Amino acid sequence: MEWLKRDLGHFAASMPIVTFNHIPMISSWTTLIPYDEDPLVATLAKVNGKKQYRHTVSNVLDVLATMRGHRYVLALGSHMHAPEHVSFVSYGVPVRSDVSAAIVGGQDVGPVIIPSGFTVYTVRDENMDAGQFVRLDPPSVKP
User: Fold this and answer.
1) In 44, 79, 93, 111, which residue has its Cα 20 to 30 A from 30's Cα atom?
2) Domain hosting residue 90, numbered range
3) Rounded to the nearest 5 degrees, what angle is found at the Cα of 29, between the Cα atoms of 50 and 89?
């Protein structure tokens, strides 16, 4: 976390901070996708001898603690191929964790329809909107 502390030292505490990660900071999709032991896509991975869930940031609590005292407003991630928006409060600061959809065509996971697309965010005067999802595939309808 030392690198993150150094980077944050370059910004005023009032500056909104946005992180970009391949994997999401947090995600509820982990309850919708099945557990997998296949080494290529295994749900768990051993890091320093400890099993960790490999589809979200494993040291999220360390990241949030390091961000303390800064306006950490948005964690953008992907990897799950499904759009998701989670809001929570960390050390008194509202934080959003948004997961971007994949741009590879929509898919169905059981009863859940996952659209293909991307989200456009607008930033004005140090404030970021909730984003506008732009769907790229036609809506799927389950029978």
Assistant:
1) 93
2) 2-135
3) 80
Please write the tens of the pLDDT for every residue from 72-121.
889 999 887 788 889 999 988 889 999 888 877 777 777 778 888 889 99
**Residues facing residue 93 across a β-bridge:** 90
Q: Are 83 and 103 in contact (CB under 8 A)?
A: no
Residue 143, domain member (yes or no): no
- Residue 60 DSSP SS3: helix
- Count of domains forming the chain: 1
Q: Is residue 142 domain-resident? A: no
Contact 118, 98 (CB under 8 A): no
Please choose, from the candidates 50, 44, 90, 53, the residue with its C-alpha nearest in 3D space to the C-alpha of residue 71: 90
- Report if residue 140 sits inside a domain: no
Q: Is the residue at 141 inside a domain?
A: no
**How is residue 110 annotated by DSSP?**
T
- Of 27, 128, 17, the closest CA to residue 66 belongs to 17
Q: Identify the pLDDT of residue 51.
A: 83
Distance CA 76, CA 100 (A): 7
Q: Distance between CA atoms of 32 and 102, rounded to whole angstroms? A: 17
